[in-house]
Amino acid sequence: MVAVAVLGVVNTGAAFVIMAALVGRVGATRGGVAVYFIPIVAMVLGTAFNSEVVLPLQWAGIAVVLFGGWLTSRRELPASRAAG
Predict the structure, then answer these.
(1) C-alpha distances in angstroms, 56 versus 32, 53, 63?
(2) How much is the pLDDT for 40?
(3) Which residue among 59, 65, 82, 84 is buried most deeply as judged by most CB within 10 Å?
(4) Residue 83: predicted pLDDT
């Protein structure tokens, strides 16, 4: 139990350090996109290790999550100059 606890604490600490470095490098909005992939990874791991069935609605959910990640992470275009 102690080994699992230490492993969890160390991995969680490493994840926080990596996330802080990412957010510091690309900004909070773009750095937060990594969180969008948690449901996708959970679904893949559930399918691979627990033989879970992936329903069509889940595929649609993945598409929504990826589209949201794309919208959030794209660079802002400079505002066009108004004529007049």
Answers:
(1) 26, 10, 11
(2) 87
(3) 65
(4) 52
Q: Specify the pTM.
A: 0.60
Q: 34 and 22 in contact (C-beta within 8 Å)? A: yes
Closest CA to 58 of 45, 40, 72, 75: 40
Cβ-contact 41, 62 below 8 angstroms: no
Q: How far apart, in whole angstroms, are the C-alpha atoms of residue 2 and residue 17?
A: 22
| Element spanning 70, H or E | helix 56-73
Residue 54 has which token pair?
């992936």
> How far is it, in rounded angstroms, from Cα 38 to Cα 45?
11
- Residue 31 CB coordination number (10 Å): 17
Q: What are φ and ψ of residue 64, in 5° steps?
A: -65, -45
